[in-house]
Amino acid sequence: MEFIKKKILRIMTTGTTTGCTPCNIIIPDTGVTYNFKICLKCESHDFGFFDTYEFSTVPITTTTTTINPIITTTTTNIPISTTTTTNPQTIYAQYVVLISMDGARFSETWETPSNIPNIISIANNGFVNTNFYTIEPSSTIPGHTAMVTGLFDPTVLNDGSVNPTYPSYLQEWLYSENILSNNIIGFTNKAKIIFSKDKLYCLGKSKSNLNDYLPYINAGVNGDGTGGYRADSLTHELFKIECLGVNPPNLSVISYAEPDTYAHNSDWNGYVDAIQQTDSYIGEIWSLIQSHPLMANNTILVITNDHGRKTPDFENHGGSTDSECHVLFVGIGPNINNGVTNIYRELIDIPITLLKLINVNKIYNSGSIMNEMLNL
Ligand SMILES: [Zn+2]
After folding, report:
1. pTM value?
2. Ligand 1 geometric centre to CA of 333 (Å)
3. pLDDT digits (tens, 9 = 90+) for 221-247
4. Interval between CA 307 and ligand 1 midpoint (Å)
5. How far apart are CA 294 and CA 238, in angstroms?
6. How far is the CA of 48 from the centre of ligand 1 (A)?
7. DSSP symbols for 245-273
8. Which residues contact 161 (CB under 8 A, 6 or more apart)?
9. What is the set of domains in the chain, with CATH numbers?
10. Hey, how many other C-beta atoms are within 10 angstroms of the C-beta on 229?
């Protein structure tokens, strides 16, 4: 039996969440009790804070439609797997690349195709979810934490001073492969994170017990989480060197900051230009992957945002409105379906889905596998 988890209402008020008293969820290792928007254990206790869900026993089918005339309209039923087990020998891709475009609003990305021609081109051959969300606080650290750890983490701060509760999917993969950090340099080169914003350095580690398995991380002007925001052009060049070279890491993450930076500066033209520039960078990354002797036809690419922006005030974000929480989601690669879905999904669903593609079960997780995206 499958459940349809469908967002029917977003109730956004200030205050604190109410816990799932019957289930009383406890996060592994920390012993700290947290409150989630929906109970991880029973998936039926809703707290009425972020979302209300509707459950059904009808098997999930996906009607793929298009809101963009560039993409061919198709209608398919994508069966949902009734089992969570995977052939232990099956690894669907050797490389996984996650790209974040910081703070680009859905209205200037998917809803303005002329801003993102390269992403549209990728989407034409890949998978798109037009109903993809972060939650309040719709901010940089919480959003990036969600997309790499699988948790809307109530403990992280947007200044980057707190490491996430859960390990990133990069850490969990390194742990599963028993790839320990080098004793001298302190990390492994098999997984790499490249960020423009220095404060995102906090994602390199977690409060879990997996910190013997650390990815390389380079964030900000000085690379070590200090010095302010680095120009996206430099971050992009560094990513090409570190992650698309002769020996690319199996897992890599890049975050471009400038759409968010220009918007905060009330520079509309700069904001739109930065989205278009980021789209150009993404097009180059995909092109380099496709011509790479190791990565071609062997790489999963996912593109998303950490958050959107307020409407009509585009300068700010952080709240719970639709335009602040609605984000882009595009995926492409081996065993990724081709089509468009409007099944409600969230940033926390990314890590467990990516790990499934490389045959790792995410232990620390509150997201769901996006089976509708996968052709396994
Ligand atoms: Zn941001």
Report:
1. 0.79
2. 26
3. 999 999 999 999 999 999 999 999 999
4. 6
5. 19
6. 26
7. SSS--SEEEEEE-HHHHHHHTT-HHHHHH
8. 202
9. 1-59 (no CATH), 95-373 (3.40.720.10)
10. 20
